[in-house]
């Protein structure tokens, strides 16, 4: 067959085009880029070069507050040095692996035909939410000297923050405000746990005449990150025009999070109120007019009787005009006009809103899919030495799920820092949720007891462990369980109790601080010691240690009650603070009334003491004042006392009939009466 130069040239051109297009295809598989140029991939174990069987991504798992480590492999098969700049990207507003990445060197120069292993760490914040936090390692570089284009490589990082999940949701600051003929319900939702929540809201309102609003639980169009606070509103299109309403909001979320908050709403339209105020006035005016008419009618009848002489009254009798009826009818109509809008609004709010909310609940309650069983893992052998292989199989996993397989020491306490990450493998489950994968046996960085850890990389979190023994690897007892935990307040604090009579007279005010706390850490909190502080005005708080007797397990919540006492005679605005582990958990204001009994005591003291001193002083003066002697006594003027007949008759041994005659008199008789 003769040689044809044109087809050969065309084949060479096609081969060159395929070589030029190779880097684009290589970016789809970041672990082993095809074609010439430098590469970036997760570093495999044993210092070997990355291959197609190695992990194509980084998988890191740890609890909040841990520092996870791994290595990035940079290979330069070319004849020129390559300078690569490294940075972490991704994470979004809620944080992620990209924003928590720290490299040993942000810029690395890889010599020709050399492979560099760059260590990096991922620091998980203590307040990080549980779940997946994806990120990306972006490597940008080119020839160390000018003359070549820059090339970008990306390696995905899948970070899973593990730990006890604790869901807590509170509803706060509930109020109702009028807006024209409608009303708006204002409320605040706070995620106080460590999981992402999608809240559901139910509204209930009861008036004086019965229910006025019913809204079944419905899902709100938002998600709350841990610690996030959202100020929301809900429309109330037809509130009652005149009523006193008790409003109750109930919020729920996944993980058993629930809370309820109440508020009062009084609807008083000024026009209707003014009309209602005029009803008694109109009634009084009608009654006064009726009485005047009766008086006039009685006067006219009296005049007719006087004029007619008391004839037959059959023709003169006239039916009394129903004057009292219009006033009563007017009062009844006014009352009906006042109460009609309230009853109509109550009927409208109770019927349509309740029907719509019930239909929405029926739609939301239908499950999308039935929950599956718990995933399992089986090993082909229970023990193997370094350099060997074992087959890992499993079932009950989510179909088409990406899994990672790792050999970890110390039962994976501490996350992937205890695992042989470089020798991990990735596998995808089939349509039935099963898999089968060969895993090389490597020595983990921590001593045994060891496990084979299988976990999902994306989607819903699922994991399973199987005990495995690495032959020849050291064995050590598991570390002791730490105590202390990481407590957080899951509900607004409140002060329970009241002041007694002794407090009114200056006794120390006492209350009981009640708060719900949850353990967000991985260790139990046994008999935690809290710091309770009280501050007044601009003064620094005075702290007092108080130990709560009990244990808060990881991922659980309990109600803690601690006594609070102020100094005797304290009054004014105080602030009660609760601290644990050097962090203020909650603050609650406390308004203490003035002890008026003490004021009354001082007022009475200011009145009684001067009076008593005056009386005592007068008594002392009477005692100390000298008495007059007989020589200096005043001469007394003796007066002659005459005894009258009435005095003598009053003597006990005489009676008026037998008293002696009083003919003897010192008066001289007159001339006519003398003998």
Automatic annotation (TrEMBL):
UniProt key word Membrane: yes
Region: Disordered, residue numbers: 32-51, 292-323, 349-393, 627-675
Highest rank taxon of the organism: Bacteria
Keywords recorded for this protein, A-Z: Membrane, Signal, Transmembrane, Transmembrane helix
Basic residues: bias regions: 627-641
Gene3D superfamilies (UniProt xref): Neocarzinostatin-like
Signal peptide feature range: 1-28
Membrane-spanning parts: 596-618
Presence of the UniProt keyword Signal in the record: yes
Bias type Basic and acidic residues, positions: 298-308
Ranges of biased composition (kind: Low complexity): 655-668
Protein name: Uncharacterized protein
UniProt source species: Streptomyces nigrescens
């Amino acid at each position: 067959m003769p040689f044809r130069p044109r087809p050969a040239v065309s084949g060479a051109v096609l081969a060159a085009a395929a070589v030029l297009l190779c880097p684009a295809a290589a970016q789809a598989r970041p672990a082993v880029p095809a074609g010439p140029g430098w590469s970036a991939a997760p570093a495999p174990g044993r210092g070997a070069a990355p291959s197609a069987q190695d992990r194509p991504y980084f998988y890191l798992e740890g609890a909040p507050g841990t520092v996870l480590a791994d290595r990035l492999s940079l290979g330069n098969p070319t004849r020129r040095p390559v300078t690569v700049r490294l940075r972490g990207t991704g994470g979004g507003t809620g944080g992620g692996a990209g924003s928590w990445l720290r490299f040993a060197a942000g810029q690395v120069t890889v010599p020709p035909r050399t492979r560099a292993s760059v260590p990096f760490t991922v620091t998980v914040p203590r307040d990080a939410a549980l779940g997946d936090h994806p990120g990306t390692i972006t490597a940008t570089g080119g020839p160390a000297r000018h003359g070549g284009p820059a090339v970008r490589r990306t390696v995905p990082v899948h970070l899973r923050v593990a730990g006890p999940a604790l869901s807590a949701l509170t509803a706060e600051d509930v109020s109702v405000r009028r807006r024209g003929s409608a009303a708006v319900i204002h409320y605040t939702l706070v995620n106080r746990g460590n999981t992402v929540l999608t809240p559901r809201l139910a509204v209930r309102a009861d008036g004086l005449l019965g229910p006025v609003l019913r809204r079944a639980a419905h899902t709100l169009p938002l998600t709350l990150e841990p610690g996030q606070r959202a100020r929301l509103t809900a429309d109330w299109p037809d509130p009652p025009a005149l009523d006193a309403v008790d409003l109750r909001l109930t919020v729920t979320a996944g993980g058993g999070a629930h809370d309820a908050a109440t508020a009062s709403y009084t609807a008083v339209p000024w026009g209707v109120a003014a009309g209602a105020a005029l009803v008694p006035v109109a009634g009084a005016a009608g009654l006064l007019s009726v009485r005047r008419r009766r008086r006039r009618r009685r006067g006219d009848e009296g005049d007719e009787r006087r004029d007619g002489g008391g004839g037959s009254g059959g023709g003169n009798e006239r039916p009394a005009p129903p004057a009292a009826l219009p006033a009563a009818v007017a009062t009844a109509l006014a009352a009906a006009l006042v109460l009609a809008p309230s009853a109509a609004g109550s009927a409208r709010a109770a019927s349509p809103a309740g029907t719509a909310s019930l239909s929405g609940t029926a739609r939301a309650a239908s499950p999308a899919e039935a929950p599956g069983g718990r995933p399992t893992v089986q090993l082909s052998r229970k023990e193997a030495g370094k350099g060997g292989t074992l087959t890992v199989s499993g079932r009950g996993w989510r179909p088409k799920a990406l899994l990672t397989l790792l050999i970890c020491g110390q039962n994976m306490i501490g996350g992937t820092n205890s695992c042989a990450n470089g020798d991990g493998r990735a596998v995808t489950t089939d349509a039935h949720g099963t898999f089968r994968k060969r895993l090389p046996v490597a020595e983990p960085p921590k001593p045994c007891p060891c496990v084979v850890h299988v976990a999902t990389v994306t989607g819903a979190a699922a994991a399973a462990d199987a005990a495995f023994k690495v032959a020849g690897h050291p064995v050590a007892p598991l570390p002791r369980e730490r105590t202390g935990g990481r407590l957080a307040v899951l509900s607004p604090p409140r002060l329970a109790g009241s002041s007694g009579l002794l407090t009114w007279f200056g006794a120390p005010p006492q209350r009981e601080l009640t708060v719900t706390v949850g353990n967000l850490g991985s260790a139990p909190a046994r008999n935690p010691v809290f710091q309770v502080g009280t501050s007044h005005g601009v003064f620094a708080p005075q702290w007092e240690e108080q130990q709560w007797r009990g244990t808060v397990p990881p991922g659980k919540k309990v109600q803690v009650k601690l006594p609070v006492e102020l100094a005797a005679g304290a009054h004014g605005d105080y602030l009660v603070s609760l601290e644990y582990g050097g962090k203020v958990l909650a603050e609650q204001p406390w308004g203490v009334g003035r002890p008026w009994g003490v004021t009354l005591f001082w007022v009475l003291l200011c009145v009684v003491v001067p009076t008593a001193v005056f009386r005592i002083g007068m008594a002392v003066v009477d005692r100390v004042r000298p008495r007059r002697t007989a020589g200096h006594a005043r001469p007394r003027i003796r007066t002659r006392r005459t005894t009258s007949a009435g005095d003598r008759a009053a003597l006990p041994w005489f009676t008026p009939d037998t008293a002696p005659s009083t003919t003897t008199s010192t008066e001289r008789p007159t001339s006519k009466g003398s003998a």
